[in-house]
């Protein structure tokens, strides 16, 4: 018995297909992120976050114990010592977190069963910190709270190229506050359910 030979033709890799029922805005960069969230596609979200990290300022790593919240621990296995500049991904809770790898934070976000609340145009004025850039769009999600967790919403900051440049939870504000800038609502972008 000879195994039958199977020949398959593969197309060049491209973006994964949109998730069934994924919301759509007609803005390709936004729709790719919306589809990745709907598919629970953390590798795609991570790839976009890693791309965005190339454009964010590096920060100096520190040796433990850290000097307050938001510090980044040096990795001696990679030859890092205190003061070496490292790439980070910003996550905002009540205190800022600078993650070396965005994957755990993005997976934790997806594990909270995010449901799209709104897509808004990000404010045009600069962010309060260059480590937490506004991006071009804010994708605001309602979250399923887990026992002991007060988070009700989160916001992905997305660039015009479709990269996730920050993950913003805040101090458990009502989800409606995540579509505001300085107390004023931002321009909403129409969303269609596919």
What do these coordinates show?
- By secondary structure, the chain is an alpha+beta fold.
- It has a single domain (23-56, 89-193), classed as Nuclear Transport Factor 2, Chain: A (Roll), CATH 3.10.450.
- It is 16% helix and 23% strand.
- It has a six-stranded mixed beta sheet.
- The longest helix is centred in the first third of the chain and has 12 residues, at 42-53.
- Mean pLDDT is 86; it is low at 1-18.
- CATH classification class: Alpha Beta
Largest sheet: number of strands, sense, barrel closure: 6 strands, mixed
What Rg, in angstroms, do the CA atoms define? 19 Å
Structural class by SSE content: alpha+beta
Order of helices and strands: EHHEEEEHEEEEEEE
Total beta strands:
12
CATH-derived topology: Nuclear Transport Factor 2, Chain: A
Q: Termini separation (Å)?
A: 48 Å
Total number of helices:
3
Under the CATH scheme, the architecture is Roll
Mean pLDDT: 86
Q: How many domains in all? A: 1
Which residues form runs of ≥5 with pLDDT under 50? 1-18
Strand residue content: 15-25%
Q: What overall geometry do the principal axes of the alpha carbons give?
A: globular
- The main sheet orders its strands as 5-4-9-8-7-6
- Which range best describes the helical content: under 10%, 10-25%, 25-40%, 40-55%, 55-70% or over 70%? 10-25%
């Amino acid at each position: 018995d000879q195994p039958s030979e199977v020949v398959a033709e593969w197309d060049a890799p491209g973006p994964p297909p949109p998730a069934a029922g994924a919301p759509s805005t007609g803005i390709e960069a936004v729709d790719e992120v919306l589809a990745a969230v709907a598919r629970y596609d953390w590798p795609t979200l991570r790839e976009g976050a890693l791309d965005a990290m190339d454009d964010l300022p590096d920060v100096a790593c520190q040796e433990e114990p850290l000097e307050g919240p938001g510090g980044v621990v040096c990795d001696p296995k990679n030859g890092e010592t205190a003061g070496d500049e490292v790439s980070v991904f910003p996550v905002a809770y009540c205190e800022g977190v600078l993650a070396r790898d965005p994957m755990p934070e993005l997976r934790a976000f997806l594990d909270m069963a995010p449901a799209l609340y709104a897509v808004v145009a990000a404010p045009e004025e600069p962010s309060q910190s260059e480590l937490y850039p506004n991006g071009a769009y804010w994708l605001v999600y309602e979250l399923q709270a887990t026992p002991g967790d007060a988070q009700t919403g989160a916001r992905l900051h997305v660039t015009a190229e479709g990269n996730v440049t920050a993950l913003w939870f805040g101090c458990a504000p009502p989800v409606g506050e995540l579509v505001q800038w300085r107390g004023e609502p931002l321009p909403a972008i129409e969303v269609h359910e596919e």
